[in-house]
Write a structure and sequence with these properties.
The complex is a heterodimer. By secondary structure, chain A is mainly beta. Chain A has one domain: TonB-dependent receptor, beta-barrel domain (Maltoporin, Chain A, Beta Barrel), CATH 2.40.170.20. Chain A has a 22-stranded antiparallel barrel. A five-stranded mixed sheet of chain A has the order 3-8-9-6-7. Chain A has a two-stranded antiparallel sheet with strand order 1-2. The longest helix of chain A is centred in the N-terminal third of the chain and has 21 residues, at 2-22. Chain A is globular. The relative contact order of chain A is 0.12. By secondary structure, chain B is mainly beta. Helix content of chain B is 11%, strand content 34%. In chain B, strands 1-11-10-9-6 form a five-stranded antiparallel sheet, with no helix packed on it. In chain B, strands 3-2-4-5 form a four-stranded antiparallel sheet, with no helix packed on it. A two-stranded antiparallel sheet of chain B has the order 7-8. Classes of the chains: A mainly beta, B mainly beta. The A-B interface holds A 87-88, 90-93, 95, 262-265, 270-271, 446-448, 471-474, 521, 523, 525-527, 530-533, 584-588, 590, 593, 595-597, 607, 641-648 and B 43-44, 74, 76, 95-99, 114-117, 121-123, 127, 129-134, 136-140, 157, 159-160, 163, 166-171, 179.
């Protein structure tokens, strides 16, 4: 039955496409010929072709053509952006990973990429992963991705790069309604309205998304992803206060409710536990933009974001509370930014700000607060008739608990003619120890071990010892004085070449990042009185990642275009490499139990990294008939999942998850000026991997109906 | 209680001293074996005791005898000697390839000094996998044991540690698979 539907669907698509292709229209435009404006790479507006650091732009047009409801699905269709599961949080017997998926860039874990919404960092990361499901796709104007160390402008977390999700701004009157339906009883509805009245602009957006979830392993009690319901809303107001002054206020909220339904062991007998998780996020942003003089801009910004997560399960029959956790995090961030443009010569950007974060969570030792003061500066020079661009910038961060941290970045871009661009950049990145590393106070009641943050370690050990919960004779004196964790720091460089004509865009790049002081878990030399271990965090690791990437886009004619991208990546632990060369690392075949030494060639690299990843896209678009079809293929090569041969590294094919393809397709047709219908299939091959990749739902179908009316001013064609 | 243990330990030493003086001239074959031992996934339940010489599990009622060499529960090893039993067992952990390490060290055998200071430190022989929660024995770790009688030597390596199938989220038992050679002639050569 299901297969028939697919066949019909593909038939339908293949029939409709040629019909529309035969019709001739004059006013089609080629995608990607204009030079869009981006803001993330330099914290001020630049043409995309003028940036000296590698930048990916995902336009609203592209997002619409995918029909996707999830930001992460849109991101992973771009070269070098890999969706990965958290390595933590996989529970026994394959229960779903509560931390969800995050973005891996340049081979670094999701915790090392700053996720910004309209330029401001979102809080509420769980095990380093920010749930991207918090962001609705319906009102995204564009997504900008900057690869490479960007701490010189964005501070901590921007070690691998920055993903900046920019939402719609008020425009001329426009009303859009959208209804979406997809497999797994997924329903989405969106209303957005924007208008400008004299000096005031308003943009309103409301989205509801619900789904029954899915079950990849019916033999196991409970669903892989439990049913959920999400609400997202945003209100943006712009006000022209004077000719040279504009005020922007943006309020945003997110509410989510998801069932928790699982089988547990209670008093040595299996039992069913049920409950739910509620998440809320409220943010408020104000910006006053003052054009103090022609070419001089000053921005006054304040940002507030509060994220809460409350989760519990009760025993089904007795209603006894089995487990409950809560997590509240908020940030207040005032900032002033100054911008001075000397036309054709230079752009200067500088800023000063503060970042005050608060956390209050059941798994943390009390209420905690971290305050950071920062200042950044960057200058960009245009030389040799604007053929050569030079950038130099740096940022200083002073957090209450560690010394001033300096993060410089330099870059150069050379454009000998309209087609070629050569660029090189290098920067220092850092990631400050987060709340979890410092203040976690987690006791696993089911198994019995403790994981303690570095700063709460001393006090907690003393208290455990007083309560008689430490093993007798444990010597804790070495741990009672906190030795502060150092920020993890990196140095990275990127070189790239791009070639651009009306028909072809080709980009090649190479990168390397060296990271030291990585924070990792270690075991204390004594146990709890129950004999189970105590873990804490310290700076131990040092790794590197390096690779090459290439992207090509070819516009065949006014209707058809194809694109392809590829990334080759190596990510290795330097200590492991040293152990191998010293002949200290062994492996034990999991079948024959033969023990041998590991060779450098055996070592595949850090877990969760694919050497090869690629994507391909085919777009057919006919603006006159209002028809488009967009096919995307995403490949993720094999990657290490877990050690099986006794050396805690990935060095055997059996330790890897095989590579896989995700094929997605969407097609839309304008029915009238206001109506557009879109149908699509995601994961056409129905790839699933219940244990290792539980966030891939398998093949799903969707239909979107869009209704949009707008007010046209004369000669305005949107 | 403590005095009793000390007396037993002293007795153990005495016996071992006796044994050393009269090594049997009979050449006995080396016992080589691969065993799977089921162990409680709990630090409060009882240990599983094992005898290398007999290649057999020893009943818990014999915990105060020298019939067993090692005891296991959760990820803790105890050796029959000092704080843990009446015997004179010890261990020396070496890095290398099992088949190439053919001589037990002459000295340097660690013993269970106290119940909280065991010869085999927790975490010294495995890597805990946070993804799968598996305790994977480190490859290239070879254990040389002196048995409970204080007079014989064993070379051992762990092959695997797996959870027994279980319901829910908490396992109840682990299965330790290991291979070893027991040298009955009392020498340190394998």
């Amino acid at each position: 039955m299901r297969n028939k539907t697919i066949v019909f669907f593909i038939l339908l698509l293949s029939i409709t496409a040629p019909i529309f292709a035969q019709q001739k229209f004059l006013n089609d435009t080629l995608v990607g010929t204009s030079d869009p404006i981006v803001v993330t790479a330099n914290r001020s507006e630049r043409k995309l072709s003028n940036t000296a650091v590698p930048t990916i732009l995902i336009s609203k047009n592209t997002i619409n053509k995918t029909g996707s409801l999830r930001v992460q699905d849109i991101l992973q269709e771009h070269t070098g952006i890999i969706l990965v599961n958290s390595t933590l949080g996989t529970s026994l017997n394959g229960y779903p990973n509560p931390f969800g998926q995050g973005v891996q860039m340049l081979g670094l874990d999701p915790a090392y990429t700053a996720i910004l919404l309209d330029g401001e960092p979102l809080v509420g990361r769980n095990a380093g992963i920010l749930k991207l499901g918090r962001i609705a796709t319906g009102n995204i104007k564009q997504i900008e991705i900057v690869k490479g160390p960007s701490s010189s402008l964005y501070g901590s977390e921007a070690m691998a790069g920055v993903i900046n999700i920019l939402t719609e701004s008020p425009t001329l009157e426009k009303l859009s309604l959208q209804l979406q339906h997809a497999s797994n009883n997924t329903w989405g509805s969106t209303i957005s309205y924007t208008n400008k009245y004299h000096q005031t602009g308003v943009q309103f957006f409301l989205n509801r998304l619900s789904s029954s979830g899915y079950d990849l392993n019916p033999s196991l009690y409970g669903k892989t992803v439990d049913p959920f319901k999400d609400w997202n809303g945003q209100l943006k107001i712009t006000q022209e206060i004077a000719n040279n002054m504009q005020l922007l206020i943006s309020l945003r909220n997110h509410d989510s409710h998801q069932d928790n339904n699982c089988q547990i062991l209670y008093q040595n007998a299996p039992a069913i536990a049920k409950g739910f998780t509620t998440e809320t996020e409220r943010s408020a942003y104000t910006q006053l933009k003052w054009m103090a003089a022609p070419n001089t801009r000053i921005y006054f910004r304040t940002f507030f974001d509060q994220y809460t997560n409350h989760s519990f399960v009760n025993l089904e029959n007795t209603n006894i509370r089995f487990d409950e956790t809560s997590f509240n995090q908020s940030v207040v961030k005032p900032e002033i930014q100054f911008e001075k443009i000397v036309p054709e010569k230079s752009v200067y950007v500088a800023g000063v700000g503060a970042n005050v974060e608060m956390i209050n969570a059941s798994r943390y030792a009390g209420k905690q607060q971290l305050a950071t003061l920062y200042t950044f500066t960057q200058k960009e020079w245009y030389l040799l008739q604007k053929k050569l661009t030079l950038i130099a910038g740096a940022r200083l961060d002073k957090r209450t608990d560690f010394d001033v941290h300096l993060s410089p970045r330099i870059g150069v871009a050379y454009k000998p003619n309209a087609s070629w661009k050569f660029m090189a950049s290098a920067g220092w990145g850092f990631k400050a120890p987060d709340f979890r590393h410092m203040y976690l106070n987690f006791y696993n009641a089911q198994i019995g071990y403790s994981l303690l943050g570095n700063n709460s370690l001393g006090a907690e050990l003393q208290s455990l010892q007083q309560q008689g919960l430490l093993q007798t004779g444990a010597v804790i004196t070495n741990y009672t004085t906190t030795i502060p964790l150092l920020p993890e720091s990196s140095f990275g460089w990127h070189i790239g070449v791009s070639y651009h004509t009306k028909k072809i865009t080709a980009e090649w790049g190479a990168f390397r990042n060296d990271i030291k002081n990585l924070i990792d878990v270690y075991t204390l030399p004594f146990n709890r009185s129950n004999g189970l271990p105590i873990y804490s965090y310290r700076n131990i690791g040092s790794v590197y990642t390096e690779g090459v990437e290439m992207d090509t886009k070819y516009q065949i004619n006014q209707h058809w275009s194809v694109a392809g991208g590829y990334q080759f990546l190596l990510a290795k632990d330097k200590q492991v490499l040293a152990q191998i060369s010293n002949g200290q690392l062994y492996k034990r075949d999991p079948v024959t139990y033969q023990t041998t030494l590991v060779s450098t060639q055996n070592y595949f690299g850090l877990a969760n990294r694919s050497k090869h990843s690629a994507n391909g896209k085919v777009l057919y678009e006919n603006i006159s008939t209002g028809f488009d079809a967009y096919f995307r293929a995403i490949y993720r090569g094999k990657f290490g999942f877990m050690d099986l041969n006794g050396n805690n590294i990935i060095d055997d094919n059996r330790e890897m998850t095989p590579g896989y393809w995700l094929l997605n397709m969407a097609s839309s047709k304008a029915i009238s000026k206001a109506f557009r219908v879109q149908i699509g299939i995601e994961d056409i091959l129905n790839y699933t991997n219940a244990l290792q990749l539980p966030n891939i739902a398998g093949r799903t179908f969707f239909i979107n109906i869009n209704y949009s009316i707008q007010h046209y001013s004369t000669n305005q064609n949107l | 209680m403590k005095i009793q243990v000390l007396i037993l330990a002293a007795a153990g030493l005495f016996i071992s001293a006796c044994n050393k003086t009269d090594v049997a001239p009979v050449v006995l074959p080396v016992v080589t074996s691969t065993q799977s031992l089921t162990v409680n996934f709990s630090n409060t339940k009882s240990f599983a005791f094992f005898s290398f010489k007999d290649s057999a599990v020893v009943a818990n009622s014999d915990s105060a005898t020298t019939k067993w060499d090692i005891g296991l529960r959760y990820t803790s090893f105890i050796l029959n000697g000092n704080a843990s039993g009446p015997g004179n067992a010890g261990v020396s952990m070496q890095d290398g390839i099992y088949s190439s390490l053919n001589t037990a060290p002459a000295a340097g055998y660690a013993v269970d000094t106290t119940s909280s200071n065991l010869a085999i430190k927790d975490g010294s022989w495995y890597d805990y996998n946070t993804t799968t929660h598996a305790f994977v024995p480190k490859a290239g770790k070879v254990f040389f044991f002196r048995t409970a009688d204080g007079a014989h030597y064993v070379k051992m390596q762990l092959l695997s540690v797996d959870y027994l199938p279980f319901v829910g989220q908490v396992p109840l038992q682990l299965v330790y698979k290991f291979q070893y050679s027991y040298q009955p002639n009392g020498t340190k050569n394998f």
